[in-house]
Design brief:
5-stranded parallel sheet; binds 3'-deoxy-guanosine-5'-triphosphate; Alpha-Beta Plaits; binds magnesium ion; alpha/beta; Rossmann fold
Amino acid sequence: MSETERSTQPSSVLDDDTRKSVPDAEPLAAPLDILVVDDDEASRAILEIAVTSYGHRCRTACDGQEAWELYQAEPAQVILSDWNMPRMDGAELCRRVRGASGHSYTYFIFMTSFADREHFLRGMAVGADDYQTKPVDLDELSARLHSAERVLSVYRSLADSNRTLRHDSERATAEARVDPLTGLPNRLRLNEDLEDVRANMQRFGDAYCVALCDIDNFKQFNDRFGHPSGDIALRSVAETLRRHLREVDMIYRYGGEEFLLVFAKQGAESATAALDRVRKEVAAAEIRILSGEVHSLTISAGLTAIRAPADVQAAIERADAALYRAKACGKNQVVSGQTHIRAEDPRALADIALGLAHVRLTLFRRGLRPQSLP
Ligand code: GH3
Ligand code: MG
Ligand code: MG
């Protein structure tokens, strides 16, 4: 007997008796979207009547190819599929459904007259969840759909918790890269962005400059007005810097009262001019502290061009040396430094001397004797 012949038994007639033969189903947790696939019209109709009488939604297809097209347009939660069909058989349909990604799990049940062990094993091997032989026992079908509901609800809650976990982890990843006080990206983010700077220099030959800015006499400001007002001032300076830089430029909180700036597609000369304009904006900005009084602060900055993709770290060190020169030369100024710190380089030695002088002065102001410094 062919699969089609057997499939129509015993419910080959779609009359009232067929409808009555659909057993009373247990209450539904949630209706399922079911796709019934069978090349035999009567089998299709019987299954459609059965599943809709259980409260599920049902679409039908007359072979694997049509089912696959319907599935791609809108995936089903459960597929009840015949095996032997023209154009595409049930095994190939099952394989394709398992290979499809990007949507929730589909529970696949073979409904076939192949009752032999080999077909059962092959069906499970291509990815079926269940296997029912024809003629279809409607009590069994109802029980299997309940099992499908349970499995799908477990998949659903797993997908929900995965979504929540992914969302939490994306939020934590973003938060770990932002400085909570100023809202600026922090050093962790800087290290990642510097990789992009290197890549852009290598790939497109883009010019970049890097600058280190440090608030002048900030300890004094804290000591005079208190740490909370110091925080207000830090936020205010960060905001002024951010507001007066171009969109393509980047600014990071580098340390306590230090900011690192990256100027994109700009040479040292124009970046220095831009940074000096920003310095003036900072000096002019009014900072309202907790007491309601208005004060202002200045910054000193050192800037240098990044010469090659591999030069990024060395460029930050050169910017730091230039910042020292800006401090030593009276603060509230921008120094552009292209010098390499090498012992034999007289300009570098001058940088070091100026830097040490600045350190000595700072220590002296704090009442410390810099005995161990040269
Ligand atoms: P200079 O002009 O040489 O840079 O002097 P300075 O006083 O700014 O530098 P110093 O390194 O002596 O002091 C930096 C101060 O910045 C000390 C520290 O308490 C303060 N600071 C660092 N981070 C924060 C912060 O998040 N909030 C506040 N309120 N102060 C901070
Ligand atoms: Mg400072
Ligand atoms: Mg500092």
